[in-house]
Each structure stands twice: as structure tokens, then as C-alpha cells.
Amino acid sequence: xxxxxxxxxxxxxxxxxxxxxxxxxxxxxxxxxxxxxxxxxxxxxxxxxxxxxxxxxxxxxxxxxxxxxxxxxxxxxxxxxxxxxxxxxxxxxxxxxxxxxxxxxxxxxxxxxxxxxxxxxxxxxxxxxxxxxxxxxx
Length: 138
Fold this sequence. Notes:
Layout: H1 2-18, H2 27-43, H3 47-72, H4 94-137
Helix pairs in contact: 1-3, 2-3, 2-4, 3-4
């Protein structure tokens, strides 16, 4: 159920981004991803579905904006259609930007998903255990 909810959320974000809304890369996405992991830990949804769902968020974060730029032809070297990067370099074409975004989305998106997923899931599991212990004690 968790992966379907995340796919639905990403579909909404994708439509918003394609329509020009500012739903792109921000710290809000990191907080949302951590919140998904915590909620999965509380619900006991499983660590693998949690990490997989967060990997979808990470892949979307890097690959979707360049994909929209590639499809619409509105790509520019430093616009909203480029993926987040630590260095100031960019690609010379929309296709290069898209392939770079997919590559980083696979590599860094997975690292992000594993770290945020494990930490968030552990926090959610701890919250669930504390609340269960409190209910049984009281």
C-alpha cells in the first residue's frame, strides 16, 4: 500500500510541476520522505517497501524535471528543468541533462532512500513501541 501512496503523491507532484507550480526540489521533499519513513515504521509497513518508496522519490527528484524539459523543449542549462547538483557544471543538451539526472537518481536516490528509510523507519518503530508500551502500562 505504501508504494502506491508514494506513486500517487509523485503523480500529483508531476502534474503540478508540468503545470508550472513550484513543486520541484526543496528541503520539503526531504522532510516528506523522512515523514513517509517514520509513518511506515509506525505502521510496520516493512523496511524494503519503505526504502523502495523513498528511492522512487529520490529518482523523481533527479530525473523528472529534466524529463519535462526534454519533452517540452523548454530546457535551459540552469533552469528549473535541471536536476540538483553540488557543482556548478551542466550539460550542453536536454538529452545529456536527462541522462545525467537518471544516472544520479539511480545512484544518489538509492543512497538517500537507504539512509532516510532506515533512520526514519527506526524512529517510527521506536514511536510505535513506546506508544504500545504506554498503552499497556496505563
